[in-house]
Amino acid sequence: MSQDITHDEVAHDHHDHDHKPKGFVKRWLMTTNHKDIGTLYLVFALAMFMVGGAMAMIIRLELFQPGLQFVEPAFFNQMTTMHALVMIFGAVMPAFVGLANWMIPMMIGAPDMALPRMNNWSFWILPFAFTMLLATLFMPGGAPAGGWTMYPPLVLQGGHNVGFLVFAVHMMGISSIMGAINVIATIMNMRAPNLGYLNMPLFVWTWLITAFLLIAVMPVLAGAVTMILTDRYFDTSFFNAAGGGDPVLFQHIFWFFGHPEVYIMILPAFGIISEIIPTFARKPLFGYVSMVYATAAIAFLSFIVWAHHMFSVGMPLGGSLYFMYATMMIAVPTGVKIFNWVGTMWRGSMTFETPMLFSLAFVVLFTIGGFSGVMMALAPVDLQYHDTYFIVAHFHYVLVTGAVYAIIAGAYYWLPKWSGHMYNERLGKIHFWWSTISVNVLFFPQHFLGLAGMPRRIPDYSTQFAEFNMMSSIGGFAFGLAQVLFVYIVWKTVRGGEKATAQVWEGAKGLEWTVPSPAPHHTFSEFGPVDLSKLANGEKFSILSDIDEKDDKQK
Amino acid sequence: MSEASNDQYYVPHLAKWPIVGSIGLFVTFMGAIQALNSQTSITPWLMFVGIGIILWMMFGWFGDVIKESEEKLYSTQVDTSFRMGMIWFIFSEVMFFAAFFGALFYARTFSVPWLGGEGIGLATNETLWSGYEGVWPTNGPADLNGRFEIIDPYHLPLVNTLLLLASSVTITIAHHALRANNRKQTIIWLIATVLLGAVFIFFQAEEYVLAYRDFNLKLSSGIYGSTFFMLTGFHGLHVTLGAIMIAIITIRVIKGHFRPESHFGFEAVAWYWHFVDVVWLGLFIFVYIL
Predict the structure, then answer these.
(1) Which letter does DSSP use for residue B262 in this model?
(2) CB A95 within 8 Å of CB A42
(3) Would the N or C end of chain A have less CB density within 10 A of its end CB?
(4) Rounded to a whole number, what is the distance in Å from the CA of A330 to chain B's nearest CA?
(5) Which of residues 493-522 of A touch B (CB under 8 A)?
(6) What is the DSSP secondary-structure string of B88-125?
(7) Could B23 and A220 be called an inter-chain contact, meaning their C-beta atoms sit closer than 8 Å?
(8) How far, in Å, CA of B245 to CA of A3, rounded?
(9) Inter-chain CB pairs, A–B, below 8 Å
(10) Chain B within 8 Å of A140 (Cβ-Cβ)?
């Protein structure tokens, strides 16, 4: 049944419709093309990664030695706050949306995203939002400095920047919600007619679940920052105990957003890794269905564990116990994923191109971050680590060697498809080893610093912490420099290089590898059944997908 | 533009409205920030400019979509995308209200009783707020903004509940009339719905005047005032938007838009109106009665 169209149809489309709009404004500002919007997202994310990275360099510079040397403490606080906001909302999330834009329509045989104009709007809100946020750095009183978590009452003392912070977060939220709606509508409504849910590549699955998380929690963040706004400017008492409110209320609302947000930043990463490892192990993904269930389970659990960020703030004992046990449960579906990746590699004929190297490092280093997470889930022990460098080490292991590594792996993996050129494998490997050694020099010592009691978000420290801090700073500078190399490699690849084939990777499966490299401006313009044998699990679940298809086509 | 058939998904080319919308949002928010941060109270003219740009964008954007729809460029699949978009947009609105309902429930079950010395709040109450009882409704242990009275749920709010419930019925009647291709009935019942919404908003404004002038119940009246005005205020804003949306689809029906078998714009507005109605029921129970 599944031999209907592939190359002919695509080539025909390519020939017929591949007229990109002329001129910069039309091509980029007014685009409705999922590939161009994906590119915009990715370029924006890379730019923000560099801005946030520069802030991290300032932080590590100040912490190179004990004592205050380079920046004022107030500015240091602005750097820690802005580094987090820029990296989370400006780099990691837009990078994932960019990958979703580029890959999801091609992976499911759709002509574009379901709502192309709204897709443009989701992106173009972001540069304005970050202009608003970053502008505060140049204002009297400076940028927000109360931490990215925006806890009151500290954040309310931020002076003029509170309004900028709140409205910038609102804009990011609007952007994310629209992006997520688009992803859901695309995946549920735009799959090729014979492509069932269980034929979907795992990247598509993880993004579908991530999109649900986004729509559920971004409005809650909007509500929380609106309460900050009214407490600051309109005399409400949400977070003011004198008026019957409670600062801890903010923490509950914020972390009801914040914990799912953590998974928003890691589930698409799981999806990317689940695409790459089977390709270079030349084996189908081990336990595909269990991967889907594990992703859904993680997403569900993410809604009922938020107060594990708040053990030290004080809550009834029953609350602490519940949130501790519920949190530790997340290790089960996450463990399923880790073992499935290992199972995929088991007895595979593996090769170690750059995307695979980053993916392997992801599996190992993300697991380290996961373990330190389980340590912190223990309520009585967390009181010792809370707000120390241990937590900094933990979330940088899951976010840098987790989310960012997955994004970099995905970039190397799909860059030949986007640009039509192979990246320089030797430089890629140098980038990998340089990054991976330096990132461990950067973050591993921070575990020891935290266990020894060094608090986070403080520009100075006791001299006993000097060696590990210097080590960490050296690792930090090296890691920062390695990412400049990454930008250079991407730039070189986009400009030219060895021509990539449509297949690109010998072991790669999926519809995106059936279209030429670079992918033409429009792919799959005609709706029609796709060749399921090209999909990693197209044939295995074809019976299921037939049933699915009948359900879908009842209209 | 290309002909649409069921195997071709309409993908618009070159959209100028999104970038206009982004500029509009930016200008609106910058204007709001400027007004909030100024020491003296100024007219937020920049914000009004921004809102003007957003309105221009909405007219242009929706206008384009309506035009494309009337040109029959949309297949049933495009229709499904729009439906999903609206459903998940409403879900995101539900979650926005959930944050404020969450704040209300937290204050009533935890923070206020704790301040009154219950459970873990014993020492807080003894040392900081000795004598505070922690009973709802409250403006907090510091008695912020002084004594206040609350709105009696069985006067204006009850009338408003009946008005909104009635408006849900009228919009459903209008929907049935549209499906029966009875345009006159559709228009009559839509106008009735708009009127019911408008009267609701009028009574709500009346209630605010009452609260501020006679009851000394203000936004600054501690946690009760905060939750009361933020929840009812955001709801009132949504009713206003919903009523404007219904007014617009009324004009569209008068202009001859929509067909008995295809009228997603109508349905989307009706869904939104029911959502606003359900939120009100939550408000009526948890804010006014309990």
Answers:
(1) B
(2) yes
(3) C
(4) 24
(5) none
(6) HHHHHHHHHHHHHHHHHHHIIIIIHHHHTT-GGGHHHH
(7) no
(8) 47
(9) 230
(10) no
pLDDT tens string A310-321: 999 988 899 999
CATH topology (fold) of B75-289? Four Helix Bundle (Hemerythrin (Met), subunit A) (1.20.120)
Q: What own/partner pairs with CB < 8 Å and gap ≥ 24 does B199-208 have?
A: B199/B163, B200/B160, B200/B163, B200/B164, B200/B167, B200/B239, B201/B236, B201/B239, B201/B240, B201/B243, B203/B156, B203/B159, B203/B160, B203/B163, B204/B160, B204/B232, B204/B236, B204/B239, B206/B156, B207/B151, B207/B156, B207/B157
Task: Report ipTM (2 d.p.).
Answer: 0.95
∠ at Cα A135 (A130, A140), nearest 5°? 150
Instruction: Please tell me the distance from the alpha carbon of residue A334 to that of residue A369, in angstroms, as a whole number.
Output: 12
Residue whose entry in the numeric block shows the structure tokens 């978590």:
A149
Strand partners, A388: A455
- A325, two tokens: 């046990």
CB environment A344-363: b (16+ within 10 A), e (fewer): bbeebeeeebbbbbbbbbbb
CA separation (Å) from A25 to A22, A30, A374, B14? 8, 6, 49, 10
CB contact at 8 A, B202 and A208: no
Question: A269 near A409, Cβ under 8 Å?
Answer: no
Q: Is B200 helix (H, G, I), strand (E, B) or coil?
A: helix
- Is A331 in the B-facing interface, judged by CB distances under 8 Å? no
Is the CA virtual torsion B260, B263, B264, B265 positive or negative? negative
Task: Please indicate if any CB of chain B lies within 8 Å of the CB of A4.
Answer: no
A308 is catalytic: yes
Show the CA angle centred on residue A372, arms to residues A368 and A377, nearest 5°.
145
Q: Select from B26, B99, B226 the Cβ nearest to the Cβ of A245.
A: B226
Domain B1-74 matching CATH 2.60.40.1740: the answer reads no
State how far the Cα of B4 lies from the Cα of B271, in Å rounded to an integer: 27
Select which of A2, A81, A176, A523 is catalytic: A176
Instruction: Give yes or no for residue A282 having a pLDDT over 80.
Output: yes
* B105-to-A343, B148, B235, B286 alpha-carbon distances in Å: 46, 21, 17, 9
SS (H, E, C) A339-391: HHHHHHHCCCCCCCCHHHHHHHHHHHHHHHHHHHHHHHHCHHHHHHHCCEHHH
What length does chain B have?
Answer: 290
Bridge partners of A120, per DSSP, are none
pLDDT tens sequence across B149-158: 999 999 999 9
What integer pLDDT is reported at residue B11 of this predicted model? Answer: 86
A274 carries an active-site annotation = yes
**So where are chain A's domains?**
7-552
Cα R_g (chain A), whole angstroms: 23
What pLDDT, in 10s, does the model give residues A12-69? 444 444 567 878 888 999 999 999 999 999 999 999 999 999 999 999 999 999 999 9
Average pLDDT estimate for B269-287: 97
A517 is catalytic: no
Active site includes A252? Answer: no
Structure tokens at A259: 């914990």
For the purposes of burial, counting CB atoms within 10 Å of the CB of B189, is it exposed (0-12), middle (13-18) or buried (19 or more)?
Answer: buried
Contacts of A32 in chain B (CB under 8 A): 11-15
Residues 149-178 of A with CB under 8 A from B: 160, 163-164, 167, 170-171, 174, 177
Residue A499: beta bridge partners? Answer: A421
Q: Which residues of A touch B89 (CB under 8 A)?
A: 177, 181
Spell out which residues of chain A touch residue B120, defining contact as CB-CB under 8 Å.
314-316
Q: For chain B, give every domain's residue range.
A: 1-74, 75-289
Among candidates A370, A256, A251, which has minimal Cα distance to A302?
Answer: A256
CA B44 to chain centre: 22
